[in-house]
Amino acid sequence: MFVTGPVNRPKDAIAPLSGVIETDWSPYTFTMNWKFTRPFQKVYFEADEPYCHLFPLVRGSLEEIAPDIRNLSENPDLQKEYDHWMQSRNAFNASLAEPGSKASQDKWQKSYFRGTAPSGAAGPDDHRSRLRLKPFAESK
User: Cα–Cα distance between 132 and 140 in angstroms, integer?
Assistant: First the structure.
């Protein structure tokens, strides 16, 4: 399990420390650790405020990934989509400041959210913009 601080919830004067814990076999507890980023600053966690994020992983799955760095130009189709996106993004951002513009009404482009490529081509059939995760089960 990957353990870290609450996702997308920064906290002033303190930063979460992250780790991977083998919870599939381990009977041990673990701690959620935080590092103070400002000396002598009091930090409070309110009742019911999240203090930890648990992200399940299959043990060994991270070691199976073999990342590499490539130039975008090595994939001309991807380069073309990126260039299309960059032009579209620049135009969108420029028109955000225009009162009443479509961009100012939309506020964001939503192409990724909708699962479409910058050219308008459909993304993968199994694209998800929202995960529907199962809740923790209570043991009986």
Answer: 24
